[in-house]
Every structure is written in structure tokens, then in C-alpha cells.
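Task 17 of the worksheet. Students: predict the tertiary structure of the chain below and write it out as C-alpha cells. Keep your answer in the requested format; marks are given for formatting as well as content.
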Amino acid sequence: METAFANTPIYAGIFRHAVDPKGRITVPAKWRRAESEDFYIIPNPQNQFLIVMPPEEFKAVGVKVAASKSSESDKRNFLRRFYSGAQPSTVDRQGRMLLPEEYLTQVGLQTDVILAGGDARFEIWNPDRWNANLEDKNDVYNRVGEEIGI
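Model answer:
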């Protein structure tokens, strides 16, 4: 029996990859659905890492914002900045994705990166920032895990 989530990718796991001289990374084979796949890339609001979303997740951001309790003006301002700040990228036949050069600089990505699964999207981190974030947020992970019974 096919569920509503049958074709929805789940990005799980952590992968260490290198950024090649052209600014490309390899998307893990487990995360690819097709030979050529489109994504949208945007720095997170604090410029700590890159968020990579398939088109359906990218489009869903607008729905989530519309349902939020923010004012209409705040919603418009957020959506304007979010969608105008995103860059489309396609995974080529070899599984490589080109990262915008300005984003690499903006979030401090150089040669090695961490690709971290995040359910319907994934993130690209500088390894040092990733490790610091894990340490800093360990208590949050433990508390929420306990709340939900994991």
C-alpha cells in the first residue's frame, strides 16, 4: 500500500565530503531520486550553514509562513527575502551539486563540509561549526528526545 510519503525523500545521516575546485559537492547516492535532480539552496538566517531543499519543500515554506501568526507585513518581508535569497541548483549525472561561490564564503565553507540530513531537507555545514553546534545543543537533543520517548 502506497502512503502519502512514498515519494517524499527522507534525508538522514551525516556525510563528510570535499568541495571540489569548481565549488561542487557530491550528494550522497542514498539521497538522490533521479539522475538529474533540482534543489534550492539558501543560507540559514544566522548564516551558519546552507539549507538544501527539493522543490516541494521549498514551495511549502510559503504555506508555512501563510499559516504563521506573524503580521501580513512580516510575512511578505520574510518571503521576499527568503525566496529572493535562494539559488536553484541541479545535481548532475555524477551526483554533483554546484554551490554558489558567495554562499561558500558567507557561511564559511572551504574544502571539507558536513552534509547533515534533516528529514525533508538537508544542511551543509563547516565541520568546526557542526561540531560546536552538536556540543552546544546536546542538552536540547536530550530533553526533546526524552519528551517524545526516544
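Marker's comment: Residues 14-148 form a domain with the Chemotaxis protein chec fold (CATH 3.40.1550.20). The first strand starts at residue 14 and ends at 18.
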